[in-house]
Write a structure and sequence with these properties.
Elements: H1 12-18, E1 24-29, E2 38-39, E3 45-46, H2 48-60, E4 64-69, H3 72-77, E5 86-90, E6 99-101, E7 106-114, E8 132-135, H4 140-148, E9 153-156, H5 160-169, E10 174-178, H6 179-185, E11 193-194, E12 200-209, H7 213-228, H8 231-238, E13 246-247
Parallel strand pairs: 1-4, 1-5, 8-9, 8-10
Antiparallel strand pairs: 2-3, 5-12, 6-12, 7-10, 7-11, 7-12, 7-13
Helix pairs in contact: 1-7
């Protein structure tokens, strides 16, 4: 998989904004198993998002330092700490208050899991009085639900494992998550169903602190080239997440 990124314009100002430490520090969300699928022989995170960060560092001509976070919420919060130069997470309005995001390079459907015997048949039937939704609140889809759910009650839990465990133990009416993860969870709960359709599509993007205006312009051009040239599609195939992770705009 070879793509020439030398044609992506890189200004001296963008270079300086992204390499203040002499390296490109890339925040990586370890909680997304589609974007981080394993480890390199050296023990570094591997997958679509680490490989995209590697390509950006190569264009900048600097070493890459991957900065792992357990969840996207923790990664997003760290924008205040000067801990990373780019962050690879879902673009959401709340995060965009402090992070300048590129257009999406990949996207993932978010939907619901309902237990056996549930009368809920579609995503449109979930936002009703008396329905509880188990969710990881600082995920991109969790932020979407916080903005959009009007009648149902959100049951916010810290980790994906806790979400599933409470959903089962407390008989919660619906569990919100990314479709690929729910397709694995449904195997653990006889009679449960993953609802067709989606309530949101998480847009995976590259972000940089809002002050980095030149860097944001470079990253936007880089992501457009990576997506449109087939580089992102190649990464998806390389890491075996075809059919679960889609190139943005190509579902």
């Amino acid at each position: 998989m070879t793509t020439n990124f030398e044609s992506v314009p890189l200004s001296a100002e963008a270079q300086a904004q992204l390499t203040t430490s002499g390296a490109l520090r890339a925040g990586i969300n370890m909680g997304n198993f589609l974007l981080v699928t394993g480890r390199t022989p050296e023990g570094d995170p591997d997958g679509v998002s680490p490989d995209l960060a590697r390509a950006i560092a190569a264009r900048l001509g600097v070493p890459l330092k991957l900065v792992p976070y357990k969840s996207p919420g923790e990664l997003g919060d760290a924008v205040n700490d000067d801990a990373w130069d780019i962050g690879l997470i879902g673009a959401e309005p709340q995060r965009a208050e402090k992070i300048a995001f590129t257009d999406a390079y990949a996207e993932i459907e978010a939907t619901y899991l309902v237990p056996a015997g549930s009368p809920i048949r579609s995503v449109d039937e979930v936002d009703r009085p008396g329905v509880r939704i188990a969710v990881s609140p600082r995920s991109a889809y969790g932020l979407w639900l916080e903005r959009n759910i009007k009648e149902a009650t959100l049951v916010r839990l810290d980790t994906a494992d806790l979400v599933f465990d409470r959903f089962v133990a407390d008989g919660i009416e619906a569990m919100a998550a990314l479709r690929p993860g729910l397709l694995e969870d449904v195997k653990r709960l006889p009679g449960a169903r993953v609802l067709d359709g989606h309530f949101s599509v998480v847009q995976q993007a590259v972000g940089t602190p809002k002050a980095n205006t030149a860097a944001a312009a470079f990253l936007q051009a880089f992501v457009e080239h990576a997506r449109d040239s087939g580089f992102v599609a190649g990464l998806i195939a390389k890491h075996g997440v075809d059919g679960r992770l889609a190139v943005a705009g190509q579902r």
